[in-house]
Structures are given as C-alpha cells and as structure tokens.
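Lab meeting prep.
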Amino acid sequence: MVKRLLKGRHKIVAFDLNVEAIEVAKGKGAIPANSLQDLVKKLEPPRAIWIMVPSGEPTEQTVKSLNNLLAEGDTVIDGGNSFYKDSVRRAQELERKGISFLDVGTSGGIWGLKLGYCLMIGGQEPTFKKLEPLFKTLAPRDGYAYVGKSGAGHFVKMVHNGIEYALLQAYAEGFELMEAKKEFNLYLGQIAHLWNHGSVIRSWLLELAEDIFEKDAHLDSIQAYVEDSGEGRWTVADAIEENVPTPIITMSLLERFRSRQKKSYSAKVIAALRNAFGGHVIRKIGK
C-alpha cells in the first residue's frame, strides 16, 4: 500500500516493527520513522495515520497510543480487519479529543499493488471527502466507496469475508469431487481456466485456482489445514444476533474447524452408530 501511495506522489512517513519493512519503504521514497512518536513528529498537521496491523490487541494498543500522541484535526484510519463494534467504540473515544476516525475495510491482498484495493469506508463523511485522494490512489476505478457512519466500513468488510468463506468452500467441494472422479482423469487447472471464459461462476478466485493447479496439479505439497482470521466467526455471530439465516457461511466456517482435526471424533461416533443400527462396516485402526 505504501508503494502504491508513493507512486501516486503522496508524502509518506512509514513505521513498522519490522526494520526491514521500513528500509524497503525508505528505498521507495518514504520517510522512515523509528517509533509512533517519531512518525507523528515527522508528519505535518493535520495528520492522517493509516494503521495496518492485526485485529484485536495490536490494533487496540496502536489506537490508544495514537490517541495520546495526536491532536484535534488529525485522523486515524484503521485499514485492518477489526471487529466493527470495536471500530464504533474507537471512533467515539478519539472524537472526544477532536480526532477523526475512519474504518476502512480493505480487500485485495498481495495483489493490491498491481490491481488496486477495494476499500469500504465508514466514518464521518467530511473526513472521507478530505482524504478521498488517498482512496482514489489505492483503489481501481469504482473500487472505493463511503458506505456509512463509523463501523459501517468494517461491517461491510466482515460480511464480504463471510461471503468469501462460502465461495471458497463451494469451489473447494467442486474441485474435490472432480479430483475424486478418477475415471475421467480431469485436469483441474484446465477446468479452472475454462470456467473463467463465459461461465456464470467465473471469478478472480478461479484465476488463482488455475495458477495453483498449474504449479501443483493434485495439491500434494499442501496440508489440509485451513485457518480463519475471525471475520467468519463475527459474521455468523452477527447473523444470530440479527436473526438472519446464513447457513452456507456458517457451514463454511465449521468446515474450517474440521480441517484442523487430526482425527475426527464425530466421524468415529457416526461410524459406530451406523454399525449399530445397520451393520455397516467399521474400519478399525491399523487395518
């Protein structure tokens, strides 16, 4: 993101706990800082501080530190995957000192430098308009939008990631079925490429799938373990709170939990019950 902003001729002061990252930013034209205090000192008021750190305690501590360092008229932008209710609270805490806060849901990942980032922006609209040149530089055409008051940006990004969970699960199940159909000897990279040309399920995810299968046709080098970063859990919890049925997103989250089990106890229970009521065969360990 720093590189893209520098290409857009924005003045950037960069700080990171990783010294190498600061050196890389410096090499691209950013002004290096060795601490948050140094960062604030090197920026001219009114300052805009963009935070990209893990959600939870890292973000919490960073915002608290900036609340003590910044002054009225400054702005804090949280571009990470924070829980939207935390963003609402942080906006209120900062605004007591006259510091603005924008929660910016950011999608695009490691491809953002080349393709741009999709930005979902919440907060005070005048602050958004003041900093709109930043968003215009970071996003592709029509790739950013002011979506509502504080918390709205991270709420929209949370739902975005919930949908992402479901899409990934659907693609994964389809490719697993094709991989299992040995009689056709299907080449999954070819099919991913094919589906991206005129198919109703074409997508960037399929483009990535094509590239992955080109490099490892049967994914032999990849362990079947899927992590989650929190947004899927928040989406499901909020759906329960709002009485909105989200069965597909919920199941995709639970499937991630299943992927982390070395041995599925529930599968053992099902196998034992099937044997008990129907005489179905049980596969014993070691046989």
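Slide two material, second protein:
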Amino acid sequence: MRLSNRVALVTAAGSGMGRAGARRFAAEGAHVVVTDLDEGAAKETASLIGGDGGSAEARQLDVADVSAINDVLAAVDREHGVLHVLYNHAGIPGASGLQMPEDQFDFGVDVNLKGAFYLAAAAVPLMERADGKGSIIFTASVSGLVGSPFSPLYSMTKGGIVLLMKSMALNLAPKIRVNAICPGPVDTPMLPQFFGREPGANVADLMSGFMASVPMQRPCQPEEIAAAAAFLASDDASFVTGVPLPVDGGYVAR
C-alpha cells in the first residue's frame, strides 16, 4: 500500500504494460485514472481494478491531441485537486526503415514524443500540489539507449524521451521526481508489431533472433514492468530522479 491516498494517471492503460501498471498502482492503494485511446478498453481495466478491490475511473484520451490532454487534466483537477503519479506510458512502434510517408513520421512523433511532452508539462501544476510526492514516469525503451536495427524513427522518439526525462528531472527538482523505464522486449500484443512492419517479414524468426540477444533468454512480462513503475512512483524511490531504468533482461549490458 505504498500509494495509499494518492491519485495516479496512466496512459495507454487499456492493455499490456499500461493495464498491468494501472492494476499494480491500484493494488498499492492509489486511485487510478485509467486512460486509453480505446474508451472501452479503459473501462475494462477500471472494471478489473474494481474487481480486485481497488479504486479507478476510466477516461478516453488521445495523447496526440493537446486539447484532449487539457480536458482530462481539468477533470482530474475538478474531481481530485491533485495528481501524485503520472505514468506517461502511451507509445507505438511507428514505421520502420528510412523511407516512409510524412504522415506516418508525424504520427510516430505525435504519439511517442509530442503527447508525452505536452501531458507531462500540463500535469506539473497538479503535481506541485502533491507535497513533494509527485512522480512522473515515462516509458522509453532500450531502443532509446542503443540503436534499434528495425526503426530509426522509434529510436529517435524514445531517445528523445530519455533526454526529456532528464531535463524535466533537473527542472522540477526537488518538488517532482521524473524517471523513465526502458523496457526490452515485453510479452504484449504489441511485440509482434515491432517485427512485422516490413512486407513479407518472418515475424517468428525475427523475434527468435532478437530474443537470442537477451541474456535472460525470454521476454519480460508486463507485471515486471509494473513492479518497476510502482517502485518509481513510491517513496521507496524518494531519492531517485533523472534515471533511465532498463528493465530488459540484461540487453543493454552487452
């Protein structure tokens, strides 16, 4: 119950890592504002949290829409008056390679980088009311620490998240801590999308080859990412800020 009596907002919480994080925050005592582009999926997560005995509400949110970001935060302000934890998780694989239509480039940047920037910035006034308990957590990637062999665009956006996180950590200390989780391959429905973006790609072979480079020899489970997020959100991480935390089975240790 490290997050008892705290309010947490999680983006892309309708499935996968976001859902696992929302459920873990609720299990730790937080009231969770579950957001997702798919409102039905957000409601399903909130229902699961209620079934677990936790407290949650669901809201539709397109993180690429700045006005939608402001609307959701205004609702949090009206109903709770404070935000303790922002888990800025939403992201997409984006287009692979170096040749892509401009609209696909823009979409990848809007979701992975622009949305994360505007949501974090807009949440600051609410988090400044958290009496020094504010924690912003970004989802970056190991591809933001080392180059992705599949997607320069993805590496560019996730590398940008790492430096955004460090800059905000310096800017907002000591009132708000800011960190990033850098997952390796995680066993979610999105994982095959990373390997299946090229026409005719052999997804099974590509995934198998990538897993061979992970020292732990398996993908991460969403609950393992959620455990790291719960640590960073809690007072157990009270002196941790500006850290890109790999949860990657040893991938970047090579």
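Talking points for slide two:
The longest helix spans residues 102-127.
The two ends are 36 Å apart (CA to CA).
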